Amino acid sequence: MKQSNVKPATGKLGILIVGNRDGLVLDEPENFRTKEVSKLSTLETILKADEQPELYSDYYHKVRINYYPPRNDRKESWDNIDIRGWMNYPMQIKINFLCRDSILAAPVCLDLCLLIDLAQRAGRYGIQRFLSFFLKSPMHDYTQGEMAVNHLYQQHTMLKNAIREMGGYEVDEELD
Predict the structure, then answer these.
(1) HEC secondary structure over 125-142
(2) What is the pLDDT of residues 54-105, one digit of tens each?
(3) 106-164 pLDDT, tens digit each
(4) Under a CB-based contact definition with an 8 Å cutoff, are residues 26 and 32 in contact?
(5) Residue 5: helix, strand or coil by DSSP?
(6) In terms of C-beta density within 10 A (0-12 exposed, 13-18 middle, 19 or more buried), how is residue 157 classed?
(7) Contact in structure between 153 and 51 (CB atoms under 8 Å)
C-alpha cells in the first residue's frame, strides 16, 4: 500500500465552510428591509386573520437581525412564541438556535440540483412548484394571481407526487 505525503487537515471544520456574510450585510437597514418584508409576507400567507380571526387577528411578529461580530458568519436566533394554555393562561415557548447557513443549506442545494436535473430529464420546464418544499418563498406564478402554498403538508404532497409522476408512477395523494 502506497503511503501519501498529504497530511490530514487540522483545525476547525468551520475554516473549510464558505460563509455569506449575511449578518454583516443585513446590519445595514436598507439591506435588512428586503429580508424583513419577505419574512413577514410569508407569515401573512400562513396566518390568515380573515379566515380564522379568533386565532390570528391579534398576532404580532417582529423580525430583527443584529450582526454580532464574535459569532461572525454563524447565526443565532431567539424565537419567542406566545401561546395560550389550560384555562386560557398565557405561556411562551422560547427557542435558541445557533447554526451556519452554509451547513444547513448544503444538503438542500444538493437535493435541489438532483430534482432540477430530474425535472429537466422528464421534459418539465417553467415554474417547478414541487420544489416549494425546499424554499422559504414557495414557487408560484404571481403574475397570474396564483397564491403561494405555504402549507408544509401540501408542499410535501406536491413534492412526492411530482417525483412519482416523473418516475412513471400514479399519483396517490391529493392536496387538501
Answers:
(1) CCCCHHHHHHCCCCCCCH
(2) 877 777 777 777 777 887 777 777 888 888 899 999 999 999 888 877 788 8
(3) 899 999 999 999 999 999 998 899 999 998 778 888 888 888 888 888 999 999 999 99
(4) yes
(5) coil
(6) buried
(7) no
Coil vs helix vs strand at 49: coil
Q: If 0-12 CB within 10 Å is exposed, 13-18 middle and 19+ buried, where does residue 158 land?
A: buried
Residue 167 corresponds to which amino acid? G
23 burial class (0-12, 13-18, 19+ CB within 10 angstroms)? buried
Written as nine digits, the cell of 148 is 403561494
**In whole numbers, what is the pLDDT of the chain averaged over residues?**
80
Phi, psi of 102 (to 5 degrees): -60, -40
